[in-house]
UniProtKB/TrEMBL annotation:
Example of a GO cellular component annotation carried by this entry: membrane
Protein location: Membrane
Xref: InterPro entries: MCP, MCP_dom_sf, MCP_transmembrane, Mito_Metabolite_Transporter
UniProt feature coiled coil, ranges: none
Keywords: Membrane, Repeat, Transmembrane, Transmembrane helix, Transport
Topology with respect to the bilayer: Multi-pass membrane protein
Solcar repeats: 1-40, 48-137, 146-188
Name of the molecule in the record: Uncoupling protein 2
Gene assigned in the entry: UCP2
Family: Belongs to the mitochondrial carrier (TC 2.A.29) family.
Pfam families given in the database record: Mito_carr
Length: 188
């Protein structure tokens, strides 16, 4: 409410374009490749154990970061810029990419990659693996059939587990990505 009162309702959508770019690139890689990578680790077997699922989740989470890290840096910076108090740092997402590359070098767009890899590996494992496990348990116990209510229930449980497990790493990643040069020696 304070943001809406002091900055207007549009402030809640600060960084929306960058957020959409991030979500589309991250989700397409981490979710889109999960089943294929899981099958790769199980060598095509129908039964995927928890180890294969965890490995597939970690792999696709890390690959998503490798592809989309700059979009996450821009999203975090856009969302934090109004809070900085010194006016807008970036006028558009394109301006943000250019400014970060110009002022911090190409590596600036990849700031926070290590904690982001850790975060996305954890998120992917927690989200996709718990979704798989919850759904499998529901189906094996004949509590539901493999349809929308089952998928929704599994996704709800997975979302809860993911948030609880990933929150500490998410806080570290966000603070590091938005930190001033030299504020932290590393994300570790």
């Amino acid at each position: 409410l304070t943001m809406v009162r002091t900055e207007g309702p549009r402030s809640l959508y600060s960084g929306l374009v960058a957020g959409l770019q991030r979500q589309m690139s991250f989700a397409s890689v981490r979710i889109g490749l999960y089943d294929s990578v899981k099958q790769f680790y199980t060598k095509g077997s129908e039964h995927a154990g928890i180890g294969s699922r965890l490995l597939a989740g970690s792999t696709t989470g890390a690959l998503a970061v490798a592809v989309a890290q700059p979009t996450d840096v821009v999203k975090v910076r856009f969302q934090a810029q109004a809070r900085a108090g010194s006016g807008r740092r970036y006028q558009s997402t394109v301006d943000a990419y250019k400014t970060i590359a110009r002022e911090e070098g190409f590596r600036g767009l990849w700031k926070g990659t290590s904690p982001n890899v850790a975060r996305n590996a954890i998120v992917n494992c927690a989200e996709l693996v718990t979704y798989d496990l919850i759904k499998d348990t529901i189906l094996k116990a004949n509590l539901m059939t493999d349809d929308l209510p089952c998928h929704f229930t599994s996704a709800f449980g997975a979302g809860f587990c993911t948030t609880v497990i990933a929150s500490p790493v998410d806080v570290v990643k966000t603070r590091y990505m938005n930190s001033a040069l030299g504020q932290y020696r590393s994300a570790g």
